[in-house]
Task: inverse folding
């Protein structure tokens, strides 16, 4: 019976690592799939351009230009904060 070997095993314990969900944790997802960051940036840009295009179509249908809308919004800012 080797007592010295048993004493070393009992002192050495493995540190537990918390398993994290990569779908909820961006850092873990980036470590697993670095392209995911690029993909999300592209998706955000596409969504913004679609939203702008939709707004332009709605403005055209209503007969309002986007310049008029921007001017109106700036006037509201001046009135509400002025």
Result:
């Amino acid at each position: 019976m080797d007592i010295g070997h048993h004493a070393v095993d009992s002192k050495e314990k493995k540190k537990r690592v918390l398993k994290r969900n990569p779908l909820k944790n961006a850092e873990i997802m980036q470590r697993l799939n670095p392209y995911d960051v690029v993909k999300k940036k592209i998706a955000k840009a596409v969504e913004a351009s679609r939203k702008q295009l939709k707004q332009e179509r709605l403005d055209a249908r209503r007969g309002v230009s986007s310049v008029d809308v921007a001017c109106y919004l700036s006037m509201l800012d001046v009135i509400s904060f002025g």
Observations:
- The chain has one domain: 18-81.
- DSSP finds four helices and no strands in the chain.
- The radius of gyration is 29 Å.
- The mean pLDDT is 82.
